[in-house]
Amino acid sequence: QVQLVESGGGLVQAGGSLRLSCTASGRTFSSYAMGWFSQAPGKERELVAAAITRSKLSTYYADSVKGRFTISRDNAKNTVYLQMNSLKPEDTAVYYCAAATSWYGSSWKRRDEYDYWGQGTQVTVSS
Fold first, then answer.
1. Is residue 104 pLDDT above 90, yes or no?
2. Exposed (0-12), middle (13-18) or buried (19+): which is 15, by Cβ within 10 Å?
3. CA distance 31 to 15
C-alpha cells in the first residue's frame, strides 16, 4: 500500500508559478513511476507529467505543458515535485499525484498504469 500526500496548490494569476509537492510512503519509492495528473471540471483526468528513475531521470510531458512545467523527484525524501511556470487559465484543475508500482517498458506514460493516487490539490489560475 502506498500513500500519497500532495501540497502546494492555490490561486495564482496568469503568468505566475506554483510548485506542487507529493510525498509517498513505501520503501521502494525509487522504483515507482510518479506522475502528475490534472482534471478540470467536466473533463477526463489526464497525465501532464511523469518521471522514472533508471540510471538517470526520464521524464514525460503532455504537449500542453512542455516548456512550462518541470517534474523532478528526490528519491531520498520519497518526494516528487511539479514546478509550474507561465501558468494559464486553462491550467486550472485539480492536480493529482499518482504512483505506478508495477510499470514496465514505456507503460509509465499511460494513465491506466497508475495504481495509487493522492487526494488532489486545487490549482486555480485567474486571467
1. no
2. exposed
3. 34
